[in-house]
Amino acid sequence: IPADGYKDPATGTIREVVLGEGDKAVAVGGVSTLPFHLFEGEMSRPPATALEVLDEAPEEWPESLARHYADVLSDPVAWARKCVQDYGARAVCLSLVSTDPNGTNRASAEAAQTAKAVVEALDVPVILWGCGNAEKDTETLREVTSLIGDRKVCLAPLTDANYRNIGATAMAFQLPVVASTPIDVNLAKQLNILLENLGLSLDHVLMDPSIGALGYGLEYTYSVMERIRLAALTQQDDKLQAPFICHLGREVWKAKETRLPSDEMLGDQERRGVLMEAMTAVCLMLAGGDLMVMRHPKAVALAEAVARGLM
Amino acid sequence: MALTGIQIMKMLPKKNCGECNVPTCLAFAMKVAAGQADIGDCPYVSDEVKEKVGEASAPPIRTVKLGSGDHVFQVGGETCLYRHEKRFEHPTGIAVRIATDMDDADIAGRLERFRTLRYDRVGVLLKADLVAVQDAGGDEAAFTALVERVRSECPDAALVLMSDSPAVLAAGAKACGDHVPLLYAATPENADQMLETAKAAGCPLAVRGATIGETAALAERLAAEVKDLVLDTGARTLRAAFEDQVAARRSAIRTKYRPLGFPTITFPCEMTDDPEVEAMVASVLVAKYAGIVVLSDLQGDTLFPLLLERLNLFTDPQRPMVVQEDVYPINGPDENSPVLVTCNFSLTYFIVSGEVEGSKVPSWLLIKDTEGLSVLTAWAAGKFSADLIAGFVKKSAIADKVKHRNLIIPGYLASIKGELEEELPDWNIQIGPREASHLPAFLREWQPN
Ligand code: B12
Ligand code: SF4
């Protein structure tokens, strides 16, 4: 069949962002083709995954997920170690949910101590993900960075409300960051521009497009990612040439269908939840996702198997 | 090649009479060119023009129809590569395979699950669409018996009849009566006989080559005589299947390459023995352009996620799914029943109303028009603010329906409580749970204040 009918090589390249350091560092991005379009371009590596660890015991996790971490749920350090040692995680995302002013509202300084302990216990890259409250996250992430010396953690999320302060911290310690915007091409681009104006190179920025899970707004995220990736690769929009990080586990496991018990109609509860998470991940990989933050070890294994199968 | 609005305009009578429901011929021509109106809506064009415009505006991928009467399954008709460009037209068909050499219990289980694994979501029925019946040994009688069994046990299933033998397929097609099946498959070895069989039966024909190139060449040859083809590029690994799907869709859309301008059929069931991996393979193919995916079995825990994915990706991005602004009585409420308010995004409505219904607590659910945005999205967009909610509560006349003055708002909107109390001084604003799944417990405990 005529190759010019289907080959349409990209002209742009997604930057490579390195998380962590040394031989356990994980590089993401660095692709110069649409996802898995190996017939017309280069994809130096399949999308990566990270397992999520919470800094306080989750109250709401269904047993089908929690049982894989049963012995460590209230010990973030042990939990993180388990992710690496038992489940082979190549990166860990520590979600600082305990700091949420609408929740436990733990003091930043206290949460920072936990984060420090987790970072020090691991040699794989760590993403420190705040609770989503702009001011609190600025405070907590600043506390952590002052405690961990020159460890190369990734700071998240930077929004239009706090990018200046967290961005300044990141530049001082030369740390990669996550720029978060709510499912919008222009807002994503705008925040990247603001970060560059601040002096932060896009070589250290991952984009979080905001995630809607399977059945809960996935299509919006999917299409906005496709549009961003097309602009980056085919229209040389260099402000959008940053890799995507997808914090999807927390969205998937909120869905009611991951909690409903096993029955004839919806089948086995655990398998259903695993497939919901793995399919969300695979859809987002197909839309351009470079780093997937996930929860269930089996879902990670399935998503990685698909990514390998596509390479 | 597609015609421009101006080219179509030249073929219209220029009466500007508006009978096409568009004020002028030019405006009508533009709509036809954009695929938003049908040339047949102008009562004054000749059949010749209709054909000319119809052919030129035919989608680059042919629409193929299977089934009959109320149970028609359509595949193809796609016009774009990415859903944001327009929309995906026909959701990937999900098929389950059965074969003449399977145990009766295995067949019965699959057919039963085909009938029962159906889910209602946002008012849409989610289900598998097709049964693929495979001839395992060339036994015509066994094959037709199985086809007849599927027809009687799963009357709404579209059928794919699979055999290497044209005679077996002919017999199977006959057993389908007027319920049009897809015949699978013409290969380079048997193409001429298969072509005759498909023509005689009046059925769409699947074409299978060893490679996408061979498939395209064969399709080109057969298309002269059978218009409705479905392509199997022969790929049986994920990597190859993905690549072929992309290549076929791009060739058809970008360059109107006719030999690949047909919907595709793919076989995750032949790519792995692991049901979870099979479902994952299918999820890639649903996103990337397969017309039909054939699965080895249907199980709720793998089928339901796949159906959700399909629902999401095939939703029309230009049309938010909404429900009507109104007061919805649930479980027969009266003057002492709780009053809840939420937005008119259909997903939100169906989740919330589902939970309220499940709680068995009689309740009033107020649905405010937020232009199809979810609770927080609408709030962030200024379409679900305290003053707008207050205005709607007054307009809804819910105050005439209940004696108490308690209004339950979504937990995510806790921050607007104060403002809302100012706007609705007669009302006591109660913050509900954040997740709708906690509503049943909340409602069972609820007391008017
Ligand atoms: C998909 C999405 C979109 C889609 C729109 C989808 C839609 N139809 O609404 C698009 C891409 C268009 C969009 C746009 C925007 N979005 Co948006 N979006 C989302 C996303 C990912 C999912 C929303 C969703 O569909 N949820 C599912 C539905 C079912 O949830 P729900 O309506 O809240 O209902 C649940 C509960 O509230 C509860 N519930 C509902 N009703 C009731 C009633 C009662 C009484 C009770 C007790 C409970 C209850 O039950 C439901 C299930 O548990 C969220 C982030 C996220 N992951 O949640 C952001 C999010 C909502 N968006 C956000 C923003 C800021 C925006 C924009 C303003 C961005 C911008 N500046 O352009 C725009 C606004 C739209 C516009 N200007 O037109 C923010 C809101 C921030 C905030 N806290 O206010 C969010 C939270 C993302 C973020 N973290 O920043 N968005
Ligand atoms: S009905 Fe035909 S003639 Fe009348 S305005 Fe429409 S296109 Fe023109």
Automatic annotation (TrEMBL), chain B:
* Domain 4Fe-4S, first and last residues per copy: 1-59
- The organism's superkingdom is given as Bacteria
PROSITE patterns referenced in this protein's UniProt entry, alphabetically:
4FE4S (PS51656)
Keyword entries, A-Z: 4Fe-4S, Iron, Iron-sulfur, Metal-binding
Output one GO MF annotation.
Answer: 4 iron, 4 sulfur cluster binding
Q: Please verify whether the record's keywords include Metal-binding.
A: yes
Q: Which Pfam families match?
A: CdhD, FeS
Known NCBIfam families for this protein? Answer: PRK04165.1
Q: What is this protein called?
A: Acetyl-CoA decarbonylase/synthase complex subunit gamma
